[in-house]
Amino acid sequence: MKFLNNSVLYGALFIANMLSFSVYAGQDCTPKKADVLIVARAFKHAQELQQKLEATGENVVLIARRGKAPDEYNVKFSHVGYAVNEGKGIWRVYHSLNTCSGSKANLYSQGIVQFYADDLFNYQTAVVIPKAEIQQRLYSILHSDNDRAITFSSEYSIIANPFATRYQNSNGWVLETFMSAISPTPLSGREQAQAMLQQLGYQPTTLKVSKLAKVGGRMFAGNVFFDDHPKNGGEYLANTGDSLMSFFSNYAKPRLDCFHFDLGAGVCVW
Question: d(Cα 164, Cα 166) in Å, to the nearest integer?
């Protein structure tokens, strides 16, 4: 058993006190006290991850975290964000999050601790370091309100169709923003980003959803919609951490010094 040292616990207690009875973006909005052990683990992992990110000397790195129950749909990583070096040892994560488990989303810039402050399956992180020219373009986009918004939709569905614009899930914004960074000409909106993805052979994850789960999702969840998908016998395409990192691996240098799962040679799992 691994024990958290005092500095981690004291830091976590301080953060948990700040987060007490607060609302976490991406979760429901029921006021609740932060779980000190969860925050402590997030704080410890964030410290370790930030040190590793700082050691890379890079400016923009894609990071993917694991979900609460990743094996339910055979998905290893559930949520992706851009970790950005803001200078002086400060890294922030730019990502899209569902608002209060409802039908809306918003864009956030958060500290690494907040990115991991959830009851996750574990704290494994998949990392992709894009090529330098892509990083430079991403850094510019992520620091521009207008450029970030070009590929964003506030209409949220956790199972949004990757090739339709009615809804968007959190990973959809990350993926389509990446298209803006690699496009030879400026994109005018999400339709162009999705057309690029199809031309480049992007493969979303195929999720199998039973009729019972589908009915339950419609009845009891405010962030699950199926009406942007064709009727296809319970199989639905979705943007997941796995499908994104596998695709991004094509735009990174192969890494021979780390574990990849089956996500591609440009992915490192820390």
Answer: 6
